[in-house]
Amino acid sequence: MAADLSRNFTHLARVNIPGGGQVRVDGNYCYVGHMDAPTGTTILDVSDPRNPVVLSTLMLDDPWSHTHKVRVQGDIMVVNYEQNKRHFHRKGEGLIEYTATMQAKEGRDPTDAELAEFLAVTVADIPTLRESARRGYHDGGFRIYDVGDRRNPKLLCHEKTHGFGVHRFDMDENYLYMSTEMPGYVGNILIVYDYANPSKPVEVGRWAMPEQENFDNARPTWKGYAKRLHHTQRVGNELWASCWHAGFRVIDATDIGAMKTVCSFDYHPPSKHPTHTVKPLPQLIDGRRYAVCVDEEHAHKKGQLPAHLWVFDVTDFSDIKFVSTFHMSELDSPWATGAFRFGAHQFQEVIHGTTIFCAWFAGGLRAIDLSNPADPTEIGHFIPTPTGGHPAPQSNDVFVDDRGLVYLIDRLEGLDILEFNPA
User: Fold this and answer.
1) What does DSSP assign to residue 213?
2) DSSP string, 241-296
3) Is 112 helix (H, G, I), strand (E, B) or coil?
4) Under a CB-based contact definition with an 8 Å cutoff, are residues 359 and 365 in contact?
5) Is 395 within 8 Å of 363 (Cβ atoms)?
6) What is the pLDDT of residue 231?
7) What pLDDT sits at residue 418?
8) CA-CA-CA-CA torsion for 179, 181, 187, 191, nearest 10 degrees?
9) What is the model's pTM?
10) Chain-centroid distance, C-alpha 133
11) ∠ CA 338-339-342, rounded to 5°
């Protein structure tokens, strides 16, 4: 079976740490943001990639938040602060609304069974949702640490935003690009912070799709928050924004205080899955510019393709063209199971050349050659063997360091360090 699980990859090490949402590597250090409380962020020394060493792990104070994303510039580390299991806990608001409706209509409180049916949860979940609704959530935002001593990170600030808090984000030497809920909008928008003083970051710009605006409690154009910002990535003076069920946008960030949308492209329909990440390849191919885009697998409907990779010709923002797609069959993984997600999730955010490394939940890691954008070709793969009693891997994020080593984090358990050896 081992030959089926790996092709053109050499496995260097596995670290059995709790599941992670993001992995980043800077120099000799690897940073992992964990999915679930109480584990927050782990820092590892990977100077010897065959023998990684855990230097420190930040723990969370309570189970209501998670810090599953992490970015680093020099000795400054930033982690998100977001409501843990946010979509479940927000159902607590529905509990309150449904109770008020029943009182107005029938003069009584709904039973726990009625609430469970309305909210699509179990009766056993109702006490948790009542507690969630009672306490609310007030810690969302991000934290900045000084990691000059990787064994002893020092908290510099906890900047609070709104609602769920911050999801995925980007960071460079000047700014933090935070995807967060904010008052007056439905769904996450972009807030840009100057962190020249990392103990007191300052908002310097914001961007949202006009349809998200909900000031003075006026109804937004879009119902609900299915169409929202997932996150942006900066490329020169452009920000490439994945916008969930609204496709993607390109934002001119030349003036960070007055960002402007210069491209809007939505491929929903036909796609049933939300846009997770989009970014252009670092070089032109035959004089044309191409972008790679990945959807995230959520609830899979029988008869529909699992989430996959797209390639678009973005040479002319006024005329975006579909070029190709890359798919993976459930037959390609021995761990495909209806109990866990199978399809695509995330490719490496720092792209070198035309090889894309993409995390496929139960399909592991896929190496895809895009030198011919019209014909994506798999040139390697690695599928982790599940550990910790889990029936399938759930590969969540991938990073390629300056040495070309590949780091694959599983959202359930484990970090794998790999060397890519293309034939």
Assistant:
1) B
2) EEEETT-EEEEE-SSGGG-EEEEEE--TTT--S-EEEEEE-SS-BTTB-EEEEEE-
3) helix
4) yes
5) yes
6) 98
7) 98
8) -40
9) 0.94
10) 26
11) 60
User: What domains are defined for the chain?
Assistant: 2-420 (2.130.10.10)
At CB < 8 A and 24+ separation, what contacts does 323-329 make? 323/290, 323/373, 323/374, 324/373, 324/374, 324/375, 324/376, 325/376, 326/366, 326/368, 326/376, 326/378, 328/360, 328/363, 328/366
Is there a contact between 47 and 147 (Cβ–Cβ < 8 Å)? no
d(CA 182, CA 179): 9
Average pLDDT over residues 301-319: 93
How many contiguous H segments (helices) and E segments (strands) does the chain have?
5, 30
How far is it, in rounded angstroms, from Cα 320 to Cα 315?
7
Residue 1, pLDDT > 70, answer no
Which token pair is 265?
């492209």
Q: Can you read off the two tokens belonging to residue 170? A: 């980007």
Instruction: Determine the Cα–Cα distance for residues 223 and 320; give it in Å rounded to an integer.
Output: 26
The pair of structure tokens assigned to 368 is 């895809």
